[in-house]
Write a structure and sequence with these properties.
With about 300 residues, the protein is an alpha/beta fold. About 35% of the residues lie in helices and about 15% in strands. The chain has one domain: TIM Barrel (Alpha-Beta Barrel), CATH 3.20.20. The protein has a 7-stranded parallel sheet, with helices on one face. Strands 1-2 form a two-stranded antiparallel sheet. The structure holds NADP nicotinamide-adenine-dinucleotide phosphate.
Amino acid sequence: MTSTARSTQLTAAGAARVGGPGTLAGRTVSRVGYGAMQLRRLDREAAIALLRRAVELGIDHVDTAQFYGNGFVNEVIAAALRPEDDVLVVSKVGAEPAEGGPIPLRLAQRPEQLRAGVEDNLSSLGLEQIPLVNLRRADHGPGLRPEGDQIVDLDDQLAVMADLRDEGKIGAIGLSSVSLDGLRRALRVGIACVQNAYSLVSRDDEDMLRLCLAEGIAWVPYFPLGGAYAGLPKVTEEPAVATAAQALGVAPAQIGLAWLLQHAPNTLLIPGTADLGHLRANTEAGAITLDEATLAALDAVPTRSGDIEVA
Ligand SMILES: NC(=O)c1ccc[n+]([C@@H]2O[C@H](COP(=O)([O-])OP(=O)(O)OC[C@H]3O[C@@H](n4cnc5c(N)ncnc54)[C@H](OP(=O)(O)O)[C@@H]3O)[C@@H](O)[C@H]2O)c1
């Protein structure tokens, strides 16, 4: 099945779209996707099995990076996904593996590093074109900040990303960990999505989400549950989430994901998990409808910021 023949109701694998249909880089995808970073915690066989299960459950958008497990995650994606699954694989550049550290990556922001990052992804994913690549900045949100030669002007980076798109190596450009000002500057090159840290309990980027909505840009929050790192506020620990979950008879994580889907129509989810039960729960969150009173209670949760604890 070609991407142009994608159904709004069913994935190419014949599963019902989880969370309904959304649009990413000009393609229809299920609004519940999968963030593959947690796969690095599994062995190869288990990681492949989890990806196959994701496809069966109706996921056809997978987020990855060469620096997840130093190429391991991309390699299992290449082994697990078949062309006929027509899964939209989205990667990112702007960092490289640094295994062994508390955050297993270091920045690689210079234009030649971005180009090399795309080449590495093409090779490990076994693709001729990566449909969408996020330029992973470090202006904003938790984690690393650039120093020295890693402080690179956004326009210089956008120029190489646009060249890579012209050359057909990438299909579309996204931005990650970008500031509001950076996003405004980048609009002229055509931005398919923004991937910033954002969840029900950490909503500093509400203005950016609204700009994306106005510009027809997909909002693909990372850490949609608060991530696996210590130091970041967790959706599942929020009392209002627990109350809503109990009232609806669902899991707290599902409330956090359902809230994201209902909060803005341009939101696409990429929750990460290494657990088959959680994978299923996350897809089932796409079918939960929160009533007005529950939404109001969740909207009233104060936003909190945090940072990754590096002990
Ligand atoms: N652009 C960027 O710079 C950037 C940065 C970080 C991440 N990302 C992407 O965003 C994706 C999502 O971020 P993330 O994986 O770090 O964080 P996340 O999705 O917010 O949370 C993942 C954590 O939540 C747990 N979890 C998942 N589903 C659950 C459920 N139903 N019930 C209870 N716990 C659950 C996972 O543990 P279990 O494994 O036990 O389920 C894991 O500890 C990543 O996988 C990656 O693709 C992008």
